[in-house]
Specification:
heterodimer, A: alpha+beta, Immunoglobulin-like, Zincin-like, Neutral Protease, domain 2, 4 domains, five-stranded mixed beta sheet, 11 helices, 25% helix, B: mainly beta, seven-stranded antiparallel beta sheet, six-stranded mixed beta sheet, elongated
Chain lengths: 591, 182
Amino acid sequence: MKYTFCRALAITAIVSFPGWATAQVDDFIEQHVWIDLAATPMQIEIELTLDLGETASAIHLATLALPLASVDVDGTPVGWSDSFSDPGYITDIALPSQLPAGTQTKVHMVARGELDCASLFYPGYQWCVHDSHQTILPMTSAGEAWYLSSVFAFDQFVGSLTVVAPASQDVVSVQGTEEERSDNGDGTATWVFSFDYPTDGVGLYAGDMEAVTSETGFPVTGYVPSAHVTKMEHAVAIAAEVLDYYNELYTPMPADHAYLVTTPNSLPFGGMGLLGTIFLNEYVFWDEYAYIVEQGVAHEFGHTWWGHMSSGNHPFFTEAFAEYSAWRAMGHLYDDAMRTSGSRMNAVWYMYRRTGNADVAVLDPKVFNSPAYGFVIYHKGSTVLRTFEEAAGEAPFTAALRALVQSGPGHTDIDKFVSEIAASSGYDASADVEQWLLQPGFPHLEVRPAVATSATETTLALFALTDDPFAFNLPVRLTFADGTTRNESLTVGEDGSGHVVWGLEGYPVLVEFDPRWTMVREITPGADRADVSFDGVVDGVDLIEVALRQGSFLPDERRVDGGYDPLYDLNGDGAVDGDDLNLVLAAAASH
Amino acid sequence: MSQRRYERTRLPSRVTVIVLLVLGAVSGCGEQKALSFNADAQPSGPRLWLQHADTHDTRLTFEVWAAEVGAVLGYSFHVRLDDGVVTAAGEVTPAAALGSSSEAALYLQSARADDLAVGGVRRDLGETALDGPVLLATFPLDVTGEVPTPLRVERVVFRRAGGAFVATSAAGGTIVRKGGES
């Protein structure tokens, strides 16, 4: 399953060029790009204004996928060369003379020739498309660039994009607003896009795919091959509702129209989210991947807020936040059960499907190099954000997220995250950051219940134990025979144990721990494995609880919701079925 | 001095008479009353109740019935008893209220000293109408101690196919000697 990697290539660049990690980090100020798609060969002209990060004789920029024809710095022609250590990825631009740190300089370059769309990072794939029908240029990365980006950090700029394309083609970029479109009278048209909101993610589509526009909610237009028009109609309808929700939840995005562009399956990503525009791989519209459309749309548009309106120098602040937002949006569109299903799916995928059982802390600086990267960042990370929401309270946590967005791109880090949560809720998230984000793993909890009844009262005692270094408050929902419920909480302390006794109005026939999947955890009955209702006896309630989960399974593919909850998989074979029911029967009969 | 020796029937002393009368009453010398069951009044609406089916000496057989519950996916209930007075005389026999084949439904039973548990669930996650009266289970008990003793039906759970609970009333009763009050 292809990962979405709106920022992955950029992160790869930063991580893969460690020798430059302490190298100069110039500050991109403004970038204007002119691209003539109708010309043969293609021509790209770029004007970049930047401030030098340190005294330098050269600057180092992502290599364009088009051969350079000329470069001048502050009007003086200069030479350029492939980076000695990273040829093909980084281009060294000679400065006319050594310039002191802080100098603002203007780089003007013209590139002309055949656009090389062969992916450097994903051999066999194309990172772009350019043919007579369409041009698709996603967010740039080192060696796969059509505009300039910093190789060493996420660096936002304002600017513009001017595109000359066949007049018959639709053209969209990011930030939702086209400044102007003018017909050139020669079969081409010129489009101008203004990037007033600082960004480092620009995308471009020019083509003749079918256009589908939302009928209600936020204006969204999707571009799709004619074979998938019906599915795109659903996608834009979902996007319209999701964007209305995100605008309300976080802060309105700086765009009055959003776009959804279908990319061919030759591109290596499943989806890419930019500011107000997303790219979705065509395969999400195939029947066998229909389950991805809604969660994919919600996730990718989540990047408008997490990765573009706000961003930090770690994928946690983009991918985990986008994934968390997606399931929050799904809960808003449908119901809490839908949100819970997404949280559970993500937690289960991280807990049981990590490649080679590898694990790494969410905030590990080298997380991108780990085989557990996707599991940890997307799936554990998003569920951990749910944990923080539960601890802080939904409204205060939302206020903290809103503050992060409003702080703008490039300003999000873990310290700011903690301080905003504290400011809005009074909750000090430091300890939870330590255990959920700065160490690998998750709690495996064993719980033993004991119910005692007398003529005057019923008490439920719970004893919880874990060997894992986690301390937390575990939500508990008690259900009585008439279906009434009572919500409580069980605290597991730093010693790994928890104990509570409650006086109740009646016998609790069903005791559920964290039924809304607000954390990554595995919980098992401590006495009898078949007592999935945690009431101290194996009876018909346990039979029914397992039966209700029949058919659920631990999926082999990412983003597939098998409905799996390990509690009901008594024999641990990855499926809840008749074998598990028989284990309940046998356990009851043995008493 | 010589002692006159008499042959005569000894009449029982007063203490001996009293003891003999008490022993007769306790031993049934003159017949102990048969065991019986005073059922609690049946509630209205969705309900589950105990019904006395048979008595053979000290063994009583009971049935558990349900009515007006509607369409359900499954059920669970417990019969609580005083294990100092009664004991389970054998397995609880669930009735095939949700379907008779093992493919249709699964039935659970367990017997602890003071608690009998019964449950059933449809395997296809569909629903069966228990509008009733519908027999859910049968179980025998041996009376080993002094009655009256209560049988309480507790933790009665009926659930719809979507998992929703059905509020249900339950009625038990008391094992007594005929003519005895509970």
